[in-house]
């Protein structure tokens, strides 16, 4: 395994960050200075000398309607997306370690949305939505739906296909008027105002990272 992949696998840094450590002559394999492209095996001893611990940052952001998914801060990037006409919770971070674990479809992480429809919900909507919907040849995983009014429902998904909720609703002859994400795992939007940030910290952060198999 290449040394940069090894350091990323061990959650010591990202691959790019590992390359920087190697260039700065801070990575040693069996006591010898590593170079870009060095390979390691399970029996090798890898040491990091003088590496400064990166300060990882995590924020909840309320994305407004009408803008593309982005970050209001250059040092942070969004985990996942919300389409231009949707709004609500995004998690912003500089921690590349969690991107795959959070977004890879082989993992199951709850995301909760409030959806309003332009037309009245059909009597069979909840049952069909929860069972899984065929969207262009793909059968969505089972989800949880709670009907709030004749024109609104709450849904909890464990996957995130592109425009999934809108496509599921369309397949069930319901037109989405408003889509708002309120929760990602244990991180909740709460009363956060549109286009504002709040830091994720303390017990909330510990629970979030532990569920991803990480520590701060």
UniProtKB/TrEMBL annotation:
<dbReference type="GO" id="GO:0000455">
    <property type="term" value="P:enzyme-directed rRNA pseudouridine synthesis"/>
</dbReference>
<keyword id="KW-0413">Isomerase</keyword>
<dbReference type="InterPro" id="IPR036986">
    <property type="entry name" value="S4_RNA-bd_sf"/>
</dbReference>
<dbReference type="Pfam" id="PF01479">
    <property type="entry name" value="S4"/>
</dbReference>
<dbReference type="InterPro" id="IPR050343">
    <property type="entry name" value="RsuA_PseudoU_synthase"/>
</dbReference>
<dbReference type="InterPro" id="IPR042092">
    <property type="entry name" value="PsdUridine_s_RsuA/RluB/E/F_cat"/>
</dbReference>
<dbReference type="InterPro" id="IPR018496">
    <property type="entry name" value="PsdUridine_synth_RsuA/RluB_CS"/>
</dbReference>
<dbReference type="InterPro" id="IPR000748">
    <property type="entry name" value="PsdUridine_synth_RsuA/RluB/E/F"/>
</dbReference>
<keyword id="KW-0694">RNA-binding</keyword>
<dbReference type="Pfam" id="PF00849">
    <property type="entry name" value="PseudoU_synth_2"/>
</dbReference>
<comment type="similarity">
    <text>Belongs to the pseudouridine synthase RsuA family.</text>
</comment>
<dbReference type="GO" id="GO:0003723">
    <property type="term" value="F:RNA binding"/>
</dbReference>
<dbReference type="InterPro" id="IPR020094">
    <property type="entry name" value="TruA/RsuA/RluB/E/F_N"/>
</dbReference>
<protein>
    <recommendedName>
        <fullName>Pseudouridine synthase</fullName>
        <ecNumber>5.4.99.-</ecNumber>
    </recommendedName>
</protein>
<feature type="domain" description="RNA-binding S4">
    <location>
        <begin position="1"/>
        <end position="62"/>
    </location>
</feature>
<dbReference type="GO" id="GO:0120159">
    <property type="term" value="F:rRNA pseudouridine synthase activity"/>
</dbReference>
<dbReference type="InterPro" id="IPR006145">
    <property type="entry name" value="PsdUridine_synth_RsuA/RluA"/>
</dbReference>
<dbReference type="InterPro" id="IPR020103">
    <property type="entry name" value="PsdUridine_synth_cat_dom_sf"/>
</dbReference>
<dbReference type="InterPro" id="IPR002942">
    <property type="entry name" value="S4_RNA-bd"/>
</dbReference>
